[in-house]
Each structure stands twice: as structure tokens, then as C-alpha cells.
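User: Could you check the structure of this?
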Amino acid sequence: MSKVLAVNCGSSSLKFQLFEMDTESVITSGIIERIGMEDSIFTIKYNGTKDKKVFAVPTHKEAVQVLLDTLIEKKIVEHLDEIKGIGHRVVQGGPYFDGSCVVDDDVIAKIDELSPLAPLHNPAHIIGIKAFKEAIPTAGAVVVFDTAFHHSIKPENAVYPIPYKFYEENKIRKYGAHGTSHYYVSKRTQELLGNPEHANIIVCHLGAGASLCAVKDGKSIDTSMGLTPLAGVMMATRSGDIDASVVDHLIENLGYDMKTVFKMLNKESGLLGVSGVSGDMRDIIDAKDAGNQRAELAFNIFRKRVADYIGSYFVELGHVDAISFTAGIGENSFIAREAIIDLIKEALGIVLDDKANVEGHGERLISAPESKIKVFVIPTDEELVIARDTKELLNL
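Assistant: Sure, the predicted C-alpha cells are below.
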């Protein structure tokens, strides 16, 4: 029996799932949130129960120790050396990594080198990798990159139309994100289609962070996020695509400094910025339904941006066999799904099964039999992908 821990060290959080890999069953899962604050929140699920505690967790290193101490204390494992492998999600793998790999000093150095492309995430990933290695030296470590799945996108989609030297010398290009999710959902979609030899799929990963991906025969050929996760569709607090001159105008004419502008674009824009209400789609829908016009505008911009990307990927792929919705909004908001499909249904010949869309739960087909394109809801499972890659690379 081999146990593998899949971990995701975010900028202020540590998310985890412990798997028994012989059966791919989840032994325990949870998250430590608000790391670095006095009121950090530790939530853990095990044996059908859920525990939640609030206390100070100053650093990621201490968060790792809290987690491991809890696994022993609650007898989820008898000894830490039962955990044979630890798989780490890493946001940015840049030009170096087109797949998952076993951790060594060179891998850590490259993750660190790429920190300017993911300043809130890559440094936290490194702390997590080192902390787990120190705590469980007998466990092998694997890194799974969010950008790896997108290494197959075509050059005309990856290279920005700026002086070419920046691509050659500085590796400035589209890298995308959510690759682990796009890989899992597109693969699962292909299985639901009956594993045809050829399949064109559009995955809509719509959560607080949101991105779309065009997948042809199992490979990403285009995705909406870019050099960083700021590009693409409107998100909870990120602007998504805007005219680059907006940045210059804010700095040169309105007196903002660069750091303030990029904080604004990442943390104060998107659904939150337009609505003034919230970055949470549930709050936006409630406010819209209560007559808040800015919330309605935010909702309509979001659905329009997603629909625009679906349309462009339909043209790029030539035809589409399936569209799959995943992540927080994609999985849980039937209102958002219906609103997006409503904008494209006439052009693409999509017919929703309203009952399946509204009343169904979990993985399911939500398009009607007469629909020219199948539409699915598929809950993503990035942690399972991480655990599988870890098991394979460590030969567990």
C-alpha cells in the first residue's frame, strides 16, 4: 500500500489530499488558510468527519508541521514514513518543464528563477517543497506544473507580437495556467465521448481564476491566460484582457505608480471592480437579481468574454465535439452556464437540457440529444493528477 500526499502551497494557503494509491481513494483532505495571520483557519476532513480550528500559523513551514502533526495525532497515519511520495503543484514552469518531474536542486533553482512570473506562488511552492523534505526525508518529491500541458500550444498562439528578441532572449510568451485541470477535464471528456481517435474539446475552467483551453486530440493548442494568469477572461478580481495603453494612461495621465496599477488589475478588478459588490459570482447573481445594475453589467461582461473565447476556439478547432465546464462557477452555477450558452447556442447549434443543467449534480451531460455539441459538467480533480504523476515517477 502506497500513500501519496498531493499538496498545493498557495501564497497564503496550503491545500492537501492524502491518497491510498492502490485504490486512488482519499484518506484525508483539507486546507490551511490565511497563513501569516493571527486567525489562520485549519480545516481537515477524515473518516467522515470535518474539523475546523482557528489559530495563528505564521509561515508555510509551520503550516507543514501543523498538518503532519495532525496526521499523527488523529492517527490518520501511524508513522510519517508511511507517506512514500509528495506531489507539489507548481504554478509556473516557464520554458523548462513540459511535464512533471522528480525534485532535485536544479529543479528547485529553476522554479526559483521563474518566481518573477508567479511572485505570489513559486516562492511559496519552494518553501513547501523544502519543508516537507525536511519533515519526511524518506518520501520522494515530484513537482507538477500548471503550465506543462500548454507547452503544445502552437507558436502563433504562444508568441506575442512584440520585438522577437524578448521571446528569444527573455522567454516572454504565453504560458497559460490551470493546465493540470484542463488536462484532467479534457481527458475525462474524451472518455465520456467514448475515447474517439480524434476529439476537439473546449474546457471552461471558471472559478475565482478563470481560463479556457482548446484541446485537439488530447493536446492543448491554445489557452486564454498568458505570460501570467492576468490575461484572458474577466475573473473574480483580475481584469483579464485589456488594452495595454490603459496601463500607460493610468500611470502617465492619472498619476498611479506601476505597483498600484498591477495590484488594481490583479486584486481590485474583474467582477469585484465592475460590480463594486463582490468577486464571488454567487454575490453578483444575488445583487443582479435584486436590481443592482453594476452587478448585472459585471455578469454580462463575464458571460460575453467567456462566450467570445468559446467562439474563437470553435473557429480555430474547425469543429467542436464537446464543451466542458469545471471549477467553482463552471461546476456550481447553472445560471452562469445557461447565460454563457445562451450567447452561443444559435451560432453553434447547442441545445441545453434544462433539467440536467439546473437540477443535476456532479459529473453529467447537460446538453439535449439534438444538440450539435455535447456540453458537460465535470468536477476537476487536480490533486488526483498530481498523485498519479507522483506515483508513476517515483515507481511506487
